[in-house]
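User: Hi! I'm a student and our assignment asks us to look at how structure tokens line up with a sequence. Could you show me two examples?

Assistant: Happy to help. In each example below, the sequence comes first and the structure tokens follow. Example one:
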Amino acid sequence: CACEQLCFDWLFIHLVMDLIRVLFLCCVVAFLPVGCNTSKLEHKTYFVRKDAAVVEVSSNHDYYTLMVHSFGQQQNTWLEPDQSWTSIEAIQRTFVTVDLSFSFPFYGTKTREIHIAAGGFLSSTPRGLEVSVESYYIAPLLADFMGAANTTANIFYLDMGDSFVVQWKDVVLHSNQTTLPFSFQATLYRSGKIVFVYNELPLSPGDIMETDHPVEVGIADSYSREVQIDGIQTFVRYDYHSIDVPKSKVDPFSLVILDPLPTCGTYTSCADCLNHNTVFDCGWCEAIGRCSDGVDRFRHEYILGNCHQERLLPGTDTCSDTGNQLYTYEFDWPSASFSDDCWYWLSVRIDYNVTDFENRMVTPDTTNSQQSIVTFSLALLPSQSDDVFSLLASSQPLFCNGDTFQVSNVQRSSSSGGISTQSIIVIVSGCILVAILVVIVGTLYYGYTHPITSLGQWLILHRRCKGFCSSTEEGNGEHIEMGNNRSESYSV
């Protein structure tokens, strides 16, 4: 009857509307900004105890040059915090983790986060490992410090785009060996250079007691490996190198500079690795895509990849095809111009040089004259392309002309004819939903055109508009007997 046709039409329309809503939600999710971070800084406890699963490894190579200068008076290297700095409380034996806006190379391994400890040191401990005073530290003055009783902010830090400054201001010793405050700072540079500056030192570092907390000035690094001990798999830390600054040389207004030397990790391609200019036995490992001598933080991956037996060495091997593709990146910029200064800070953010960029272009946004679209290309491996995309799409603002701006709508495509990641998500989601829609419509159509089938009978019995579609008129009917004691009447 016409009423039953109306019921099927009504049901079909509602199903289509539901599918449209689902498709809309999928598209919205696909275009949500990537990398949003709303977490607050959390104080965690660092460890002072000696870890039993530690092996001392001797390294004869030089990783840094060390210079110590004593001026006798304050120099312009000391920075005074202002409202642009972030302050945190110096709670005894705790640390907070801060993201860097640039990649900081420590012993040749780049990191994007740093741990700031109340105990006068920074830590580059990898994720998943406990932060301790034993290694991975950058220590202008590692000791058992805490905040003074009359203040709640004794540590200040500032990210300046290509350098990161941390200042311990008016911290005191927990032991009360002296109640006078200490003030000193550490600066990390994008180049890997580390600078310590001292302002107030009521005690010489060599005179601070080490009763239950070590006292260190310098840096140290390690690597960890999973090994089997007594039938149990455990991670063992190997301390392979440290630099101890002579404590007697550190006094108020002194300056300590640690300048990095080239290491295997400095080289990011096979060709550069096999032409390295270092004192290390560098080789290129295809399995992990790294230049290494096997003594760095990627030692575990180095062994798993069998790099110690299958790496390419200078003078004896040649590099195979790099497999690089030309990836093009595009993003919306909330300004009509994108200056050379902006290009520099963009290169810092994604950790490539401006000279590596190809096809640089800034075009006006046709929908908004106050905005522009920035485009550039890089020849990369697929894994490197993923890293660049992640850094570019992060929620951190981009420095430019003395201000900060937010990058949005980041897109990526490759020279092999690929399309952007978000477009792929939308296309796949759309194809899935269209397939579901076709199946549902086909099923409804079959049941609607074959009412005496089991499907047709089920749709009639479970239609939502039973009461609305009930006919009040009686007409001449032709009674048709059906199998399984079922029957249906049709008006003729």
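Example two works the same way, sequence first and then tokens:
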Amino acid sequence: SPSAAAAVAAASSAATAASASDDRENVSASSFVPTPDLLRHCEPPASNGGRVLKIAVLLSGGVDSSVALTLLKAAGHDVTAFYLQIWFQEDFRNYWDQCPWEDDLRVARGVCDALDVPLRVVPLTDAYWDLVVSKSIDEIAKGRTPNPDIWCNSRVKFGAFRDHLAKAHPAEFDRVASGHYAATDRNSGDDGIVRLVLSGDLHKDQTYFLAHLSQQQLKHLCFPVGGLPKEALRGVARDAGLPNADRKDSQGICFLGKVKFSEFVAEHLGEIEGAIVELETGKRLGTHKGFWFHTIGQRSGLRLSGGPWYVAAKDVEGNVVYATREYYAVEKKRDAFEVGEFSWVSGAPPPRDENGWALGIKPEEEKEGPSSGEERDAPSAAIHPPMAITGKTNRAGETSAAATAAAKASNLFVKVRHGENRYGCTLRFSEDGESGSVVIERDDQGLAAGQFAVFYEGETCLGCGVIAAKKPDA
């Protein structure tokens, strides 16, 4: 196998030779002039006191980061592109012929040639393995559902790379930019806090993947794409003559490339047979090859007749997978969970009242909660009532109707996965603030330990926590 350094050199050489043929005909990227509205997330010098920023732009070879680079250059900033080489492990047999990074680098080189921007390759393989891949393997082995893409952003792209800049280019760059669908707000207060806000394209919004950043990291970032709809973004790429304007978006877990998830897990955790047991009856239904191949809510892969069957729970110690055909039954409602391991990109947790309710200050006259049938005058007067006590409702452990109503009226929202769906919710902190209980406004059957829950106040992303377990009494 060639060394990583030799491969980088070979790919770079090939990219240089091929870049001319990749340029779109009769279009000059250097002559592209965007409308002022396209530059509103670029801190253009014209609206920033004439300040020209020196910006390190993370360039992946995809169209999003390429447009981010294009817009920042068009805005008048001094930009340098950086390609992060982050996937190469000699002990993983599928690594070299399956990972598409060489093609990504070739495309990135073509973009930089078209824009007349320097490109530097930064090898961060060791940091990526230590901070993302090995952590993911460890979480899967514990029966949890990790999100490597969240760790990749906070620990590598905006963590290890920032460390690299500090050592190799001390005090040289004012910002690090990427092609994420998100926006920053630097002007809404005098507190010096930079706010991470939802992009205009809620379907593509990526604030979920950025919620684990620290406030210190966020202060040095910019996201030029903002919420530009995908088709409009590709239109910018075509207008600018970028060679990857119509390149297909990448999908899947960040570090796998074309490697199948099951193959990756088998490579590192092996296969150990265990029982598949029906949740309701305790009857053995079949055999699996290891609980780590299965996630809560999964339907495919159980290879059982008489279904559809869903993974309902896992016994990590006993290597048992519990399955059910009644996953979406009312009595298996999932609208509450415990959360911990908080990280607040806003710089601090949201304010809480004397009873621990986040954003839940109760009007004095309603300390005991509204009486039956009483209506709230406005969302700002929403009450966050305590959870139902087991046995005091029509179904043991049911989340009370008042708690659900409070979640619907709340200005606190939560996402439990990437996508446009988010729930109104209540969050009650533990006494030490290190954990909390969450009730969401409607059922979500995909809640699983290890997932990130990302919290928002209105359109502002506050930060995140890790789902620990479904509430035992909900």
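Here is something you could point out in your write-up. The longest strand covers residues 460-470.
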